[in-house]
Amino acid sequence: MDLRHWPLYGLRLRTPRLELRLPGLGLLDELASVAAHGVHDPDRMPFNVPWTDGTPDEVGRAVLQHVLGTVAGWSVQDWTLSLAVLHEGKVIGRQDLMGRGFGVRRQAETGSWLGLPYQGQGFGTEMRAAALHLAFAGLGARYAVSAAMTDNPRSLGVSRRLGYLDDGLETDVVRGAPVTLRRLRLDRARWEAHRSVDVTVEGLDACRAEFGV
């Protein structure tokens, strides 16, 4: 692939078990299929945007459109890096890193999901650690923020293992009902103190300016 016009496709994050990269159409189709086969118990909704409501075909299509939309809508002032997560060459989930006014604020936000067969194996912590390494070590972030519903112990557990501190509560509306989200914040000092995953980054120099830094 010629990367002159979109060098973000050459960015690679690697951990001991995972590779994270912006998916081309082939990998994106695999990612959509993972989502279509389920990412959570259908009786509960762990996301404040209920994108998993719908038939498997609708869910897969929503993933494909979302990732393509992040590329089409990218700007240095407001960006979402939506990475496919691969284990042993197989797509298992998605890790997002987002920045709004990042060049000034130096604050990044994360979001992610894993296919049901890959949950409970530590992949969630490892892929978030990769995104945080890109944010702090690669892009010079001062803070990283996240949020999860108060009844989502897995997501909250990942955040706390990585050093995040509670940053208050907020109320959102999901499926027409109120839900409580717990906000979390991680500063550079706590990120450094809680680093436990080896991460390497390739291809950043070619696309660093796209992040506003």
From TrEMBL:
One Pfam family in the UniProt entry: Acetyltransf_3
SUPFAM superfamilies per UniProt: Acyl-CoA N-acyltransferases (Nat)
Domain of life where this protein originates: Bacteria
Domain N-acetyltransferase: 17-164
Gene3D superfamilies, sorted: 3.40.630.30
PANTHER family: RIBOSOMAL-PROTEIN-SERINE ACETYLTRANSFERASE (PTHR43441:SF11)
Protein name: GNAT family N-acetyltransferase
